[in-house]
Amino acid sequence: MTTFRTMPADGGPLRVVVVGAGPMGRRWLPTVQESPEVDLAGIVDLDVPLAQAAAAELGVPDLPVGADLAAVAAASDAQAIIDATAPPAHLPVTVQALELGLPVLGEKPLAATLAEALHLVAAAERSGELFMVSQNYRYNTGLLRFREHARALGPLGVVTAEFFKTLHKRQVHEVMDHPLLLEMAIHTFDTARFLLDAEPVAVYCTKYNPSWSWFRGEAVATAIFEMTGGVRFVYTGSFCSPGLETSWNSAWRVSGERGSACWDGDAPPRLEVATSDSVGEVPAVATPAPANSIAGALAEFVHALRTGTTPMCEVHDNVLSLAMVEACVLSASTGRRVDLNEVLESAHATAVAKAEDDVRDVLRSWTSVSAALSPHRCTPPTEPLEVR
Ligand SMILES: NC(=O)c1ccc[n+]([C@@H]2O[C@H](COP(=O)([O-])OP(=O)(O)OC[C@H]3O[C@@H](n4cnc5c(N)ncnc54)[C@H](O)[C@@H]3O)[C@@H](O)[C@H]2O)c1
């Protein structure tokens, strides 16, 4: 349970500034405009003409825009921000917003590094404002149904996720250090935590580039996670895999004592329960229309601010999804099994060394990272989430 400043409903929509008018910001802007629960109050981007063009495209050319978040927030009487900047900007943008008294709904990954993520946990605690990460892949009716199926299987043994895509279009990924793990696998790792309601304990990972890869950083990885409760989560992903591509959601299989469930990430998931007296395929239940993923995250953010309910992916909770990425990177570079506590404590030491004043005091007050994070762990609902 996390406490943060709430904004009880006053009959009006929440006034939101979108920071970052790149491709992801351009997905957020119409989502904000279409939601009755929020009002688009302004747009911030270091590239001001880009922010102006985005406002003009939305039909609101007079909207407050600029490169300075404080100025746009003041001019627009903002109540919250959505941070759709690139990962290196997540720390400075979020810290500035929290210091301005603005709650933040940030894009994944939480930050560019785990040390920066822990800095942001401390900054959010110090400010008393809500910082939630939008892990939009959680807001998907197929996944919610698959999660129900997984719960029908009794104790689980192993879960696999396969992700195979050919990513040519984004040059930014082609020069990143960890394009697959930091940009994409973070979604799948976070989904595994949600699906299993379990946390990562340790990982062995290998990552590499096949001979035809056009990426600088490794675009292929396989990771075997030990999760709490003993279940193993096995991930294989590739960004340079032409033919028979999987869904962006990955292709999943869950194997439990009573049976198995599969989900290709697009079609309704399948469940086969096998017991001593019955073996049968349970017909897939019709699912509602595909959910608009970031609209689900936005709705949960507003609901949290209105009610004080800790949302999924509140910053404390989301740290472990990024820790899975960093543990994979360490395992792949050292060739050994990595305990998640090792990367958390190492990131904490880095964060303490870099932080100043109040944030450093908060970080130093933690007896251990897992002790600091676990009281805030949000238990995902066992009932299906409402997906719009
Ligand atoms: N959830 C998803 O499905 C999904 C999909 C794609 C990208 N993303 C995430 O969204 C984020 C943005 O992705 P993108 O592809 O749009 O990135 P991008 O780098 O193409 O665009 C980011 C924009 O932010 C602006 N910016 C950078 N620093 C800023 C700062 N300090 N203040 C104001 N503006 C700043 C840049 O000028 C740029 O216009 C990333 O974290 C990415 O991982 C999420």
Task: Provide a descriptive summary of the structure in words.
- The chain has 388 residues and is of the alpha/beta class.
- It has 2 domains: 14-137 and 293-312 and 342-376, 3-Layer(aba) Sandwich (Rossmann fold), CATH 3.40.50; 141-282, Dihydrodipicolinate Reductase, domain 2 (2-Layer Sandwich).
- Helix content is 39%, strand content 21%.
- The protein has 13 helices and 15 strands.
- The structure holds nicotinamide-adenine-dinucleotide.
- Nicotinamide-adenine-dinucleotide (NAD) is lined by residues 19-25, 44-47, 50, 84-87, 89, 92-93, 107-108, 136, 172, 183.
- Nicotinamide-adenine-dinucleotide binds next to helix 1 and helix 4.
Main β sheet profile:
9 strands, mixed
Number of strands: 15
CATH classification class of the largest domain = Alpha Beta
Using only CA atoms, what is the Rg?
Answer: 21 Å
What order do the helices and strands follow?
Answer: EHEHEHEHEHEHEHHEEEEEEEHHEHHH
Distance between the termini: 25 Å
Secondary-structure arrangement, i.e. CATH architecture of the largest domain: 3-Layer(aba) Sandwich
Tell me the helix content: 25-40%
The residue-averaged pLDDT reads 92
The name of the CATH topology of the largest domain is Rossmann fold
- Low-pLDDT runs of 5+ residues are 286-290
